[in-house]
Fold this sequence. Notes:
Number of domains: 3
Shape: globular
Helix content: over 70%
Number of helices: 17
Amino acid sequence: MSMLSVSKAADSSAKWAAVAVGFSVPISVALDNALLLAILVLWLVGANFREKYGIIRKNPVALASLALIGLLAIGMLYGSASIHEAVNTLGKYIDLLFIPIFITLFSDSKTRRHALAAFMTAMMLTLFLSYMLKMGILHQNSILRGFAGNPYVFKLYITQNFFMAFASMVLATWFFHEKDPRKRLLWGILTLLALINVLFMVYGRTGYIVLALLVPYLFIRKLGKKGLLIGIVVTLVFGSMAYFGSKVFHERVSLATDEFTHWQPEKAADTTNSIGQRMEFYSNTLKIIEKHPIFGVGTGGFEQAYAAQVANTKMLQTHNPHNEFLLIMVQTGLPGLVLLLLLFFKQWREASSLSEKETYLARALVLAMISGCLFNSFLLDHAEGLFFAFMTGVLFSGKTKT
């Protein structure tokens, strides 16, 4: 077999492995890691680096992701973190390095459609099993992690609700753009079932916030300025139905409000007060940033810096502040925050060069990640970070309106 044949076979296999990531990311960490290793090896064996470099060089989103991971790599060279801590932390951000790789692999529209379909297939399987758990037909086991009262399936409820909120908007775009009445009905029913799953069944307040942003924006994209009012009304109607009709939603929102009002600055939060703990984390992290505003404490240095900040107090130590913006800034200073915001800005701007449907989904991804990163360290977290890298590759590798 010639080298050209080997190269083409490797590239083709890398594309299919990348497509498979869409199915694995909502389901299995082990499969994710195996696929990522396969993609990296096959992508390198596939060679043709001049063409790949050309694709990456012309894609602002790919360049922004490389700049951010590059700064995190530089952050390993200073600070008090051990080399093990620094390497371990950088490894958790490795998904940023896969963004340009995914962008080269998803350069054709057929592969992008397959990749999105793979993700949605996994989410529809998750949706089906979640309803089975809720109805008591299936029960918690080594694979199905939730239970009838909180029927999350493969991932923790925060992750599932985040993914399902985004998936519901993918279904909604399919509904709005579908011309076949039977398929349109199917997408409409699945959209409704996914929304019910997020708002009425599974815990996960991040999912609520994502929907509160994405639903109005969906109507803005479809109807222009008048869509804003319609979107707000639809969001308020669903929100009210969930608040007064869903015990899960009502309890989660009420608990968050109660926990926030009971939080007191400079006083250790109760260990049962998750919102209070987050506010405590944010407050202490900002104090660390005040001490190291330009360069930060170095990649992997957060945990040690935070421990020093809360020393001789009753406040809990933590390995991450549950806010990606603060975590990036505390490690790499103001330049890190600028590069993270630049990545999101580049995505938002480049989305305008896509088709109407892809523009909405691309900007929905940005809104979902920004809102998620305000309350979680989503780029650090495996599933959410890989989802972001994968979906960025799917949505930002095609730049011509179709």
